[in-house]
Amino acid sequence: MPTNPPRAAALHALFGGTFDPIHYGHLRPVEALAAEVGLNQVTLLPNHVPPHRPQPEASAQQRLTMVELAIADNPLFAVDDRELQRSSPSYTVETLETLRKERGSTQPLAFIIGQDSLLSLHKWHRWQDLLSYCHLLVLARPGYGEQMETPALQRWLERHRVRDAAALSEQPQGYLYLAQTPLLEISATEIRERRHHGISCDDLLPRSVQRYIELQGLYR
Description:
Number of domains: 1
Strand content: 5-15%
Enzyme class: transferase
Low-confidence stretches: none
Protein name: Probable nicotinate-nucleotide adenylyltransferase
Shape: globular
Number of strands: 6
CATH superfamily: HUPs
Pfam families: CTP_transf_like (PF01467)
Pathway: Cofactor biosynthesis; NAD(+) biosynthesis; deamido-NAD(+) from nicotinate D-ribonucleotide: step 1/1
Order of helices and strands: EHEHEHEHEHEHH
EC number: 2.7.7.18
Oligomer: single chain
């Protein structure tokens, strides 16, 4: 009697960030990406000490709580606080290396970044190892093009790029996919500036997160 071939494991995606605070500019493009490539779950990875950015204003616990509030009613999202347990900088490649060991060698795994991060990816720690552990899914960002800084980097992008999202579930890692996600001009910097000036942020982030920010007296 013939046996059915084993089903491919579902593509699982991770999305890192400082989330200081988390806002619709994080959540809505990722929701659109999930629909575009067929993601059932996206795990948010709040950074502890981001190597390339100023230190967060909110504490690690406050940022984790804001993420938990923002995704409480959305089954697409989960949160992993492993990077917040570190006292050293959060290097994405090291987290992905650990996750790959946990998930095994055959699980399709993807890491979500913005177009701005793609263009500066060559400045990341061990950036050339990233595709050894995962696919990269790239969100469109306002004001950023698709052209890499050098011809060599552009060749690297084209060598790994796939245009058919189905390919992402057929291999565990190694591909780069440029998504057609909405361009939302929302930034955590804008939210902090609004808070400093007493301007409402209700249109930029979930109300539950806004209430928590007010209760904690953040970003004054």
